[in-house]
Each structure stands twice: as structure tokens, then as C-alpha cells.
Amino acid sequence: MRYKGALTPLLAWAVALLACVVVMLQTHFVTDLSAFMPKTPNARQQLLIDQLHDGAVARLVLIGIEGGSDTERARLSRALAEAMRKSQRFVSVQNGEEAALARDRAYFFENRYLLSPTVTPARFTVEGLHGAVSETLEAMAGEAGMTIKRLFVRDPTGETLQLLEQFADTNQPQSQNGVWASRDGERALLMALTRAAGSDTEAQSQAVESVRTAFAALPERDLQTRLVMSGTGVSSAASRNTIEREVSRLAGASFILVVALLLVVYRSFVLLGLGILPVLTGVAAGVAAVSLVFGQVHGLTLGFGTTLIGEAVDYAIYFFVQRSTQHDAQRFWRTIWLGMLTSVVGFAALVSSSFPGLAQLGLYSIVGLIAAVLVTRYVLPVLTPQQMRLRDLRSVSVAMDDAIDHAGAWRWPLVGLILVAAASIGLHEGGIWNRSLSGLNPIPKSEQGADQKLRSDLGGVDSRFILALSAPDTEVALQQAERVGVVLQRLVNDQVLGGFSSPAGVLPSLATQERRRAALPDPDMAKHLLEQAVQGLPVSAARLQGFLQDLESARQQASLTRASLDGTAVAMLVDTLLIARPSDMLVLMPLRAVSEGARAGTLDLERVHQALRAAGLDGVTVIDMV
């Protein structure tokens, strides 16, 4: 070894590089945009982060089948839904099939006395029963007359009808050949909820790919048919693939260009390899540092950071020039350290950013540049040959000096260009800046348009206005949702709200179920009350024995839980609005604006907040997501 103690820096570098590689192999790379949300978000931002990470919004997959005939699309819809259910990658798959609708109707009918908000002690008095049966008889003359007539013997008080009315004002996809279809009838529709969390991009990608594979494998499929998919999980998988592809392409292209340029200058593969060494070490150190500090590395951080680490190439160039010209080494290294420190100070501002993605970028660049300088200072002097020849580029430098000497003639045109640019920015009045996360979305506009079409066809609930609250467990969360629902219903009656959705509407709290069960009379009392209640009505108590039997069954049945919803479409509704988090439960209740009148399409959030505060519901937040 040429230098005394040269083995020490080489061993230290090799050990450090090996440690970085080990960390890199275990690094989790992510592509979701939550890394570019603040560390200490406000209520709106926190809600968005929760949804991007683990919310049902991030697990929802919207699927369309286009092309072919309507009967072929319907057949493929049924076959694809069945294949997806068997894959076990999805909690729920819905396509509007009659079998699924029948399960929903059976759920509401069989559990109507635990679900219906009209089930109170007053309902099961002589007066209450008389009024309820009278209303049901009158409703037989309406549009739902045939349905009510079929249910009347077992449900003379119309509890099932009361339950179905809560969904009457929500948009539903139209049906074609027994499955959901788009409004123009040119697309069969499906909707699924993945079992994996939205933050698990690998599992999301596998679930999306399994749908494509299942569709391609459907027997006797018309080749003119095609699959269209959207949703956060689909976008996440596509974003990850796009980012990985773009990072690989750009990093590869820049690496090739740098290598080509250095070969032209060095004309030596040895010097080329030594010149790249600080860059590769800096990249490894940067990735390892971000992984250890943040637990993961964002794809965009890797892409941007690798470009910034390219500055490390200059360190090797300066070193080779210094060695070939025999300039004062001590002064040279002071200059290199000063240059590195100025870059570190600049990137230090990013480390303190409230956005984790930018903080990652800052840490990545700082650690990478420091590692590159250390390799240049302590490793390259040991590995660089004593006799090295660099191409004489004095003619190039002379030409560049001449160009710089004559650059003064362009000062006024440059000043004019700067003024024009400043005026252009000023005329935009801030509109030139894109403050939306959509600006970071790598998904093409065409695919974003397909997402909007699918959501419109499926008649999804408007998610602009969302009421959010948290609770320590599921029972408290449902009780809070019920309290909030009482306030919101008053606002609906006052035409402040157009409507709302609540998980408690299809899965009441255990306390509410127990109160409703307690309101049901025992068999002897029920028979006595019914005989008196139907006096004067065109129906005899003898015809309503099924009603009495169902009352007793309801008194004995077990309370409903989330497991009771398995196999129904409303399970997806509950999973979307009642979200388990590591330390609590999040309840989301989408609010619909008034659709008619002078205030159509608007929502008085202040009045909603006032009503909630007046009811003692201070921990509830109503957010305009726009």
C-alpha cells in the first residue's frame, strides 16, 4: 500500500457500504402522496392522510366492462364477480346481481325490529299499532303497493318500508340484464373493497392484477370486451409502476450521459470507475439514512435525490484535476469542504419541512453529499494511480473563457428577459402555482377521466362534505353516530341538508338494539294489543299471526354485529364509513347539499356546526374537501 494507514479508510468504507446495502435490501419503497402531506396536519389534511393510508376510500376498486353486447357484458360481470370473491383478496364484491340484492332485502327484513328507528315503546301500544297498520294499508295504493302487499302479513307496521326509505334519496346505478350498468348502457359495473390496507401498495397491486388476470381468463370471452378499472388502489399501483419506470429510465439515461462525458474527458475506464465511486456511495448512504429515519423511502424522493447526488461527480473531477496539476492540496480540500457545506446548508431547510417527502429529500441529499466527499477525500487518494493522465482540455477552457469575457454584451437583453418573466408571474396573480396534490399525480388525464365516469355511473355519494368523528371503540363510535344522526335529521327536516349517510343506519349500536328489543311486547301482550289495534280496520288479527311470530323471534335474536353484514352490499357501506385505526375508530358521515331551491348545491357549514355544538357534540368536525 502506498500510504501509511491506507487500509483503515478502505476497510471503513467497505464496512459502511456493506451496511448501507443491507439496509437498502430491507427498505420499503412507497409511492402514495401522503408523504407530501404535513407532519402536523389540520383536520381536513389528517382525514385525507387517514384515507390514503388505511381508509376504505383507498381500498375501493371501481370496475367497468366495455365492448361486446349488453348480454355478454352482463355474463362477464357475473363471472368476474364470482372469480373475485373466490380470490379472498376482496372483502366485498358487488355488481347489482339479484342474489346480492336478495341478501340485502333479507338482512333488512329479518332484522327490521332491531334496525328501524320507529321501533319505540309508543309504537307497540294500541294507538301506535293502529296508526302504523293504517298507514301501511294506505301505502298499498301507492307505487310500492305490490311489494307492501307481499310483506303485509308479516310486517303490517311497515318497518321494512321505513328502512328502505333511508336509501331512497341516494343515487343508485341502473340495472341491465340483472347487473349494474352505466347510464348510457354501454358499460357493466362492479365495485369491490380490497382486504389489504391502502398503505400496502404491494398488496393493492396484487389485488388489481388479480382482477385483470381473472378477466383475461374468463371462458368464451368476446375479445372485443375490455376491462376498465379505477380507484385509489388502482391509481396507487399504476403510480408505483410509473414512478419506478420513470426513475429507472431517467436515472439510467443520466448515468449513461455522465459516463459518456467522463469517458470523453478521462479516456480511462479506471478513472471512470473511480469517478463514479463517490456517487454510488452517496446514493447508498442517502437511501439507508432515509430508511432508518423515516422507515420508508418515497419513490419521488429517490428520483429527485439521485439527480441532486449527481453533484458528487464534481468532487472526483476536482480531485483528479488537483492531482494532475499538483495544486496545493490543503487549499484544495478546504475549497471542497466549503462547497459541500454550502450545499448541506441549502438542503438543511428541507429537513425541517413539515412535509415528510421534502424532509426525506433533504436528508437524502445531505447524507449523500457528505458520504461522497468523505469517499473523495479518504478513499480516492488511496485507489487513484500515481501516474494518471487527463486529457488536455486547455483549448476548451480558453474557448469558454472567451465566451465569458463577451457575455457582458448580453446583460441588457438578459435584464429585459428577467423583467418580462417577473411581469408574467405577476400577471398570473398566483394562479401560476399549483398547490394541489393532483399536480404530483403521475396518472394520465385519460385515466383520471375514466375514474370520474365510473364514479358517476355508480352513483357514489358526494364526498365533498364529510362529517368526521373519532371514538375509542366500535360501540361508542356507533352511539356517537346515532347522536349526530338525530341532529342531522333535524337539519334535513329544516332543509339545511339534503341528506346524509351513517353506518348506524344499517348497524345500530348494541345499546340501541337493546332498547328496540325491549320495546317489543311479549307474545301474550302482543296478541292482545293487536286484536284491539285492528278493530275498525279491513284486516283481522288472525291473518297477522306471522307478525306475532316475527315479534317473538326478534325478542330472542342475537344482537347484530359487523359479521352479520357479511355477504351483503351494505357491508361495504359500513366498512367505508366506520374505519378501524390503530388507536381508535373513525366515523365518516358524508353530507349531501340541498338539491332544490335557492340554496341548491350549497351547504351552510356554520349552521351545521352550531347545531352540533348545541347538542354537545363538540368533537365532531365537518369538512369541505374542495
Uncertain segments of ≥5 residues (pLDDT<50)?
A: none
Amino-to-carboxy terminus distance: 66 Å
- What is the number of strand segments? 13
Radius of gyration: 34 Å
Helix content: 55-70%
Please outline the helices and strands.
Blueprint: H1 7-25, E1 29-30, H2 43-53, E2 60-66, H3 70-86, E3 90-94, H4 98-110, H5 112-115, H6 126-139, H7 145-151, H8 159-165, E4 174-176, E5 179-181, E6 187-194, H9 201-216, E7 226-230, H10 232-266, H11 269-294, E8 297-298, H12 299-309, H13 312-325, H14 329-351, H15 356-383, H16 394-405, H17 411-427, H18 445-457, E9 465-471, H19 474-493, E10 499-500, H20 510-519, H21 523-533, H22 545-556, H23 570-577, E11 578-580, E12 585-592, H24 605-614, E13 621-624
Parallel strand pairs: 1-8
Antiparallel strand pairs: 2-6, 2-7, 3-6, 4-5, 9-12, 9-13, 10-12, 11-12
Tell me about this structure:
The chain is α+β, with helices and mostly antiparallel strands and 626 residues long. The protein is 57% helix and 9% strand. The protein has helices at 7-25, 43-53, 70-86, 98-110, 112-115, 126-139, 145-151, 159-165, 201-216, 232-266, 269-294, 299-309, 312-325, 329-351, 356-383, 394-405, 411-427, 445-457, 474-493, 510-519, 523-533, 545-556, 570-577, 605-614; strands at 29-30, 60-66, 90-94, 174-176, 179-181, 187-194, 226-230, 297-298, 465-471, 499-500, 578-580, 585-592, 621-624. Strands 9, 10, 11, 12 and 13 form a five-stranded antiparallel beta sheet that branches. β11 and β12 (585-592) form a beta hairpin. α9 (201-216) crosses α10 (232-266) and α13 (312-325) packs parallel to α15. The radius of gyration is 34 Å and the shape is elongated.
